[in-house]
Amino acid sequence: VIAALAGGVGAARLLRGLVRAVPPGDVVAIVNTGDDDIFHGLSVSPDLDTVTYTLAGAVNLETGWGLAGDTFRGNEALRRYGVPTWFRLGDLDLATHLYRTERLRAGATLSEVTREITGAWGLETRLLPMSDDPVRTIIEVAGGDGEGPQALRMQEWFVGRRCEPPVLDVRFDGAAGAAAAPEVLDVIAGADVVVICPSNPIISIGPILAVPGIRAAVARRRDRVVAISPIIAGAPVKGPADRLMGPLGYEVSCVGIARAYADLCATLVIDELDRSRAAEVERGGLRAVVAPTLMTDAGAAEQLARIALAAVG
Amino acid sequence: VIAALAGGVGAARLLRGLVRAVPPGDVVAIVNTGDDDIFHGLSVSPDLDTVTYTLAGAVNLETGWGLAGDTFRGNEALRRYGVPTWFRLGDLDLATHLYRTERLRAGATLSEVTREITGAWGLETRLLPMSDDPVRTIIEVAGGDGEGPQALRMQEWFVGRRCEPPVLDVRFDGAAGAAAAPEVLDVIAGADVVVICPSNPIISIGPILAVPGIRAAVARRRDRVVAISPIIAGAPVKGPADRLMGPLGYEVSCVGIARAYADLCATLVIDELDRSRAAEVERGGLRAVVAPTLMTDAGAAEQLARIALAAVG
Questions:
Q1: N or C: which end of chain A has fewer CB within 10 A?
Q2: ipTM beyond cut 0.95
């Protein structure tokens, strides 16, 4: 079994390659739910859905999230009622949120609903939410003139405010009291390889590691853990990692990633553009594997997945 | 003020004429909520929405309900999750249900939410739900071979089962303990005229009258109450009135309507095709006014509204 700690778009792209490199049923993704939020009363799990839609071959390949060919008629219609519509819910995508919300309200756990949803999409790969308890990633940002810091939910900062307010700190509300979802700790303990996907280390992998027991479980497998740097040549491939890593004291580079994961993984895959920094990564106690890490298509993703798995041996 | 007891499509069409005959702000519609139901966790109020969309000029004129130009992509997408999708929710229409559901869950009353929704659509006419308490119209139908009677919610019988199971009885769950919504009793008591719209007497007007206090309030204004027969030449213009009136002991005709409303209204508008039955209506103690009652367009609806109002004087 290959266990993969996964955020959204970057993780989904790697997983798409991973399930070509090994049988899809041998992959278990442990997915960040810190971005989960409620919009118009609906429980939305952005990362679970991005991974599901991607593995189902139904994702919008241009944006990396949402469903291909989706429309936003319902979301636009909500404007009439004066509610915030900056988080764009697609008409087809809404079905997933309606289904999830109703099942959760009926008492199902997020793990159970996720199994139902991935089953409905025909996935052989298992997706485990990191926790069935709500954990909410909160971005603390500088307020305006004369105002104190503001606490924004992740989607509010990322989508609603376009990552513009400078970040002061990040916290994971609810994490301390959350339990890892069923199977999560066992899957990590028993996996042949644990892959830390090329996701944002602060707000995609960070919340997973903040659930009590998960960081320790990964650290115990350090020799079998391989991470793929989401930073190439000092910039994230996608998303706001640069706006988070700097303020939180990490260099925005594969070296910064190496430092963030030093206690967790013995191997870090870095991009060919970062070859000159391999020595620095290795001085931090990790083995650096240099490879093309830009997943331009499923074939490139498969190649990267094979390199990552081979690196662990 | 003109108070109008209203169900769905037939009522909406009359109201569209009424607001051309008198200032829209002088009309208050008291609307059936017995058809309200929950689909995919969303609170749906079919009659309130039909009246709102019709008065806003946004209704789908072909079907009489839903929004013109709406699509059903989300509803179709729900099939993947194996949930019943026979109640077709439009993509644009969903915005209304999402808004209503969230506001109700936040503690707003249905009256308050209805005021917000009608305000968002720019209506000057006030819509009052008959009650802020849930009342559910239940159709008791014959079961299959060897099975006892079945209790179906109204939409389940009407849409889900296409009115096919023969009706044994109708009841209004929750009605006995429900209170008329704020203003309802005062509006009836103070109205210049009370109009009973050409709606299904059993399951559109029936639930309104089943809310404690409303039937008595209407009966006290009997001289100022005018009903319009929804039955023309022995058949309903639209909807399943014939499948309900017969089993419940009413002749499916304007004479049956006259008997159902004898204690409530002094005047009944019947169609020209029913002229020969005017004497029978009058023997029941109501004045019969013969008029063209088929509302083929807004002009015809206005004409009918003017005749109904003039009949009360």
A1: C
A2: no
